[in-house]
Amino acid sequence: MKYLDPKNDLIFKRIFGHHKDLCISLLNSMLPLSRPIVSIEYEASELVPDIAFLKNSIVDVKCTDSLDRIFIVEMQMEWSDSFQSRVLFNASKAYIRQMRKGDDYKLLYPVYALSLVNDIFDSDPQTYYHHYQVVNIADTRKQIKGLELVFIELPKFKPGKKNEKKLHDLWMRFLTEIDEETHNVPKQLNSDPKIRKALSLVEESAYSEQDMIYYEKVEDAIRTHRTYISDALAAIERGKEEGKAQGIAEGIVQGRAEGERNKTIEIVKNSFAAGIDIEQIAGITGLPAAEIVLILNNKGDGYATGLDSGKELTVSEPRAKYTAKRKVSKTASHRKRK
Fold first, then answer.
1. What is the rounded distance in angstroms from the CA atom of residue 75 to the CA atom of residue 334?
2. 115 has a pLDDT exceeding 90
3. Could you say which DSSP state residue 74 is in?
4. Looking at residues 278-290, what average pLDDT do you find?
5. Does 306 have pLDDT greater than 70?
6. CB 314 within 8 A of CB 273
7. Cα 327 from Cα 338, distance rounded (Å)
8. What's the whole-model pTM score?
9. Inter-residue contact 157 to 172 (CB < 8 Å)
10. Is the separation of the CB atoms in 296 and 268 below 8 Å?
């Protein structure tokens, strides 16, 4: 027996969009409902926005139950940052469309959005079930009823026991374990009549040639999308590595430049301390006289100058002249003492 992947758009809609009993069973097993669903009526799954420039949003299954609660079911093969916003948009649109002119807000019924995601989007490795409500942050027991969103990360699901027969686990195993590679169906799945019926709907023999062409197109589209994502991520990583390499190279160049700069500063100071004037130091180092003066006056380089007079040099006052001035000053002082 050859099976198809129930997560494929065609197969998922065939199972849960055409068989009410299977849709009810799935919803009851996945959603935290105070009262179970007894019966449902399907509605058009296309939600056309009132604003013309917004894209149409398509959901896989949309239905209401006997209590007028609204349910939206969607299978998402790839996670994107905009998906949560799209789910919220669809749920909100379904909620407000109940309202007719003159109606009381109290007549609005709750909307539940169930999103089955064949991807990992949350960093917690253990939690695959994410239930969102509108609640008071200070006291989460206080809730504004109307919208409830459930996101399920299928790849994270690990059945507690292989012989577990809880309906939630059976549906999760059906969605995660059955695909084109399946040859032998686990007997636990065959033990439940609803799951057994769903299994019959994923047999390839149940579909026409035209159905299979569409099925393959969906699979090809998913593979292509994953390739694009993979290539994009690889390109980002290459860019990061190239950036690191360039940064290292620039760091080496910068380090060498700083080393040369420090060596030049040392030459300037040692030459000046040895009595060489600024013009000669400029000729030795290739630095402008003004820059040599800045170095010797301890400006811009953070090093001590070695000057012993407390007087700043200027470009027009070379070391030899400055030293001669100091000698004359000392001689005059000596004569005065005599």
1. 101
2. yes
3. E
4. 80
5. no
6. no
7. 17
8. 0.63
9. yes
10. yes
> What is d(CA 169, CA 149) in angstroms, rounded to the nearest whole number?
20
Residue matched to tokens 């190279």: 249
Q: Which of 171, 164, 215 is nearest to 188 (CA)?
A: 164
d(CA 209, CA 197): 22
Instruction: Name beta bridge partners: 115.
Output: 74, 151
Per the model's pLDDT, the better-predicted residue between 213 and 30 turns out to be 30
Token pair 């007997």 in the structure block, residue:
187
Give the number of other Cβ atoms within 10 Å of residue 5's Cβ. Answer: 21
CA distance 278 to 281: 5
What are phi and psi for residue 191, nearest 5 degrees?
-75, -20
Q: Indicate the range of 38-47, 58-67, 188-197, 254-263 predicted with least confidence.
A: 254-263
206-251 pLDDT, tens digit per residue, is 888 888 888 888 777 767 766 766 666 677 777 777 777 676 767 7
Distance from C-alpha of 231 to C-alpha of 226, rounded to nearest angstrom: 8
Three-state secondary structure readout of 262-285: HHHHHHHHHHHHCCCCHHHHHHHH
Give me the sign of the Cα torsion angle 300, 305, 311, 313: negative
- Checking if the pLDDT of 284 tops 80, the result is no
End-to-end Cα, the chain, rounded Å? 124
Q: Are 151 and 76 in contact (CB under 8 A)?
A: no
The upper half-sphere exposure of residue 203, i.e. CA atoms within 13 Å in the direction of its Cβ, equals 12
- Extract the tokens encoding 16: 């849960």
Do the beta carbons of residue 150 and residue 30 sit within 8 Å? yes
Greater model confidence, 81 or 97: 97
